[in-house]
Amino acid sequence: MKGSITKFIVLSVSDEVEELAREIIQRGAINVSYSEDAYHVAIAIINEMDFLLSWNFRHIVRKKTKDIVRMISSLKNLRQIEILTPAELL
After folding, report:
1. Dist. CA 13–CA 2, nearest whole Å
2. What predicted TM-score, i.e. pTM, was given to this entire model?
3. Confidence of residue 1 (pLDDT cuts 50, 70, 90)
4. Dist. CA 75–CA 44, nearest whole Å
5. Domain definitions of the chain by residue range
6. What DSSP string describes the chain?
7. Res. 38 pLDDT band, cuts 50 70 90
């Protein structure tokens, strides 16, 4: 298929990711009921991604989440990521 993705790396959950996801939840960026979303954010940060693309406006692509994640990353001296929708990347 033309334009399809044929190679990609699967990023795994590490102790660092676990710790960061817990803090994202504890600080109120994402509700504990949606902890998988906190893991998505934590995996992107720990693996030093530039962007996290999501259509999840309920838990990820919202001002509160972005602000708290930015604050946590700054306090922990971690890479800042941009949380965007795919449309915003273009």
Report:
1. 31
2. 0.89
3. low
4. 17
5. 15-89
6. -TT-----------HHHHHHHHHHHHTTSS-GGGHHHHHHHHHHHHTT-SEEE---TTTTSSHHHHHHHHHHHHHTTPPP-EEE-HHHH-
7. very high
